[in-house]
Design brief:
Elements: H1 12-33, H2 53-63, E1 82-90, E2 98-105, E3 111-117, H3 121-129, E4 136-140, E5 143-148, E6 156-160, E7 165-170, H4 174-186
Antiparallel strand pairs: 1-2, 2-3, 3-7, 4-5, 5-6, 6-7
C-alpha cells in the first residue's frame, strides 16, 4: 500500500507537481494549433490556372465544323475576365454535335462558362441543363437569348446564331451574363483555316 500525505500537509510544491502534466499537455496542443491558420472572412481565392483562350479557340475554329467566336472580354485593371479552363465534348444524342467550352473567372471571382456547339438548343439543354424549361428571354444586340433558371442551379442563357448555338452559364451576376452575351454577340467567327 502506498503512503499518501494527509491533505493538510500538502504544500505549493505538491500543487506544482500536480499541474506539470497539464501544462505539458497545453504546450503540445498550442504547438499543434500554431501549425493551423484560420480566416475569419471565409475562404480566399487561390491562384487562377493560366489558360490561353485565344489559342484554344483558334485551334477549335480550325478543327471543328462550325464557326467559333472569341469574345473580347475586359482583361486589364479591376474589370479583368481571366480564362482558366477549356474542354471539348461531343453530344451523341438526337440533335447532337461537337462542343467547345472555355471557362472564365469574372472580376467578382465567379465562374462563367462559354459553350459553342453545332448541337441544337434542345440537345444542349438536355445535356448540360438536364432538360430545364425556358423561363424567359433577353435581347442583347442582334441576338435573343433564352433564359433557363431553376432554384438551386446556376442560370444559363442559350442563343441560336444560325450556324452555331451558344450557351453561357455560371455563378455570375446579371452584369456578368450581360457582358459575356454582348461580347460573344459582337465577336466575328475566327478563321477556319
Amino acid at each position: 500500500m502506498s503512503y499518501q500525505k494527509p491533505r493538510s500537509q500538502n504544500d505549493y510544491r505538491d500543487l506544482i507537481w500536480s499541474l506539470a502534466p497539464l501544462v505539458l499537455i497545453c504546450l503540445v496542443i498550442a504547438g499543434i494549433a500554431s501549425q493551423c491558420s484560420f480566416s475569419a472572412g471565409g475562404p480566399t481565392q487561390g491562384q487562377i490556372p493560366k489558360f490561353d483562350a485565344k489559342a484554344a479557340l483558334s485551334d477549335d475554329a480550325r478543327d471543328m465544323s462550325f464557326p467559333i467566336r472569341l469574345p473580347a472580354l475586359p482583361d486589364t485593371g479591376g474589370d479583368k475576365w481571366t480564362p482558366n479552363s477549356g474542354s471539348h465534348d461531343t453530344i451523341t444524342d438526337t440533335g447532337g454535335g461537337q462542343v467547345s467550352t472555355v471557362g472564365y473567372i469574372t472580376p467578382q471571382g465567379t465562374y462563367m462558362q462559354l459553350t459553342q456547339s453545332s448541337a441544337t438548343v434542345d440537345a444542349l439543354d438536355k445535356k448540360y441543363l438536364g432538360g430545364r424549361a425556358a423561363m424567359g428571354s433577353e435581347q442583347r444586340g442582334d441576338h435573343k437569348w433564352t433564359v433557363y433558371a431553376e432554384a438551386g442551379s446556376e442560370p444559363a442563357w442559350i442563343s441560336d446564331f444560325g450556324d452555331v448555338r451558344i450557351m453561357i452559364k455560371g455563378a455570375g451576376n446579371g452584369a456578368a451574363f450581360n457582358t459575356l452575351a454582348t461580347a460573344v454577340g459582337q465577336a466575328q467567327p475566327l478563321p477556319h483555316s
